[in-house]
Design brief:
Elements lengths: L3 E3 L6 E3 L15 H46 L1
The structure holds zinc ion.
Length: 77
């Protein structure tokens, strides 16, 4: 059984039984709760990276279009 954890605020090692961090006073969430929060942040990260990928694809398509236009104008010369 794990009896120590880390303070999310200051990173110090804490006893799981502590409700507050003795180093910085940050409220220490129980493990279950912080697991849920960690998972939510992980999901948020996934959503964000999916969004960024979509934006990147859009940008790439736009760049391809611009490149095609530039090539077209270069051919006119
Ligand atoms: Zn702390």
């Amino acid at each position: 059984m794990k009896t120590v954890t880390f303070c999310k605020q200051c990173g110090n090692v804490l006893n799981c039984e502590f409700r507050f961090c003795p180093f910085c006073g940050n409220r220490h969430q129980n493990r279950e709760m912080s697991d849920i929060i960690d998972k939510s942040f992980a999901d948020l990260g996934k959503v964000q990276s999916r969004w960024q990928l979509r934006q990147l694809n859009k940008l790439e398509k736009r760049l391809e279009k611009i490149e095609a236009e530039i090539n077209f104008f270069l051919q006119l010369k």
